[in-house]
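Regression test case RT-17, inverse folding.

Input:
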């Protein structure tokens, strides 16, 4: 196990289109998932994509703690390989929600995302995956999948008033508009 170095915004690996994972069960992929799990636990946060740890591969891990869950139901940590997202809501029905990113430390912003998505791909064991996600889980998966396409959350923002340092926003909470 190892704690990996996290690339920060500005590093070219975060702007690259990542390569598909050819064999989920390969030892190097399993080791990467283990190391990313340890790295995320050390850094704190809900998700981590392989390009953030300098591996340009289509793979991410995420979890949803009870405190962030819309349903009150936690999602334990899981790895998603070669994810493909299909929006299940209209573009004009995107919802605003707060996001941070381990590659943009200390900041957070309100980012519009699809409220519901279909996620296909593979699990950590290489088994096929096909499920529907909504709310915060859908948001996290959209954020992490963006990393695999070289997209960081500021590129998804539409209103830069809702962007700030965590310390300031914690001191001065900002309500988000219901309608975008
Ligand atoms: Ni991120």
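Golden output:
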């Amino acid at each position: 196990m190892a704690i990996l170095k996290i690339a920060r915004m500005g590093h070219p690996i975060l702007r690259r289109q990542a390569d598909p994972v050819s064999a989920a069960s390969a030892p190097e992929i399993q080791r990467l998932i283990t190391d990313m799990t340890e790295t995320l636990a050390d850094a704190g946060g809900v998700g981590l994509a392989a390009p953030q740890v300098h591996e340009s591969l289509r793979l991410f891990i995420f979890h949803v703690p009870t405190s962030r869950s819309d349903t009150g139901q936690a999602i334990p940590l899981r790895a998603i390989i070669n994810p493909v997202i299909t929006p299940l809501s209209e573009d004009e029905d995107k919802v605003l929600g707060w996001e941070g990113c381990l590659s943009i430390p200390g900041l957070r912003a309100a980012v519009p995302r699809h409220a519901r998505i279909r996620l296909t791909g593979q699990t950590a064991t290489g088994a096929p995956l096909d499920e529907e996600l909504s709310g915060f889980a859908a948001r996290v998966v959209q954020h992490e999948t963006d990393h695999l396409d070289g997209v960081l959350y500021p590129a998804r923002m539409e209103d830069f008033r809702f962007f700030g340092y965590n310390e300031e926003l914690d001191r001065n909470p900002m309500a988000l508009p219901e309608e975008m």
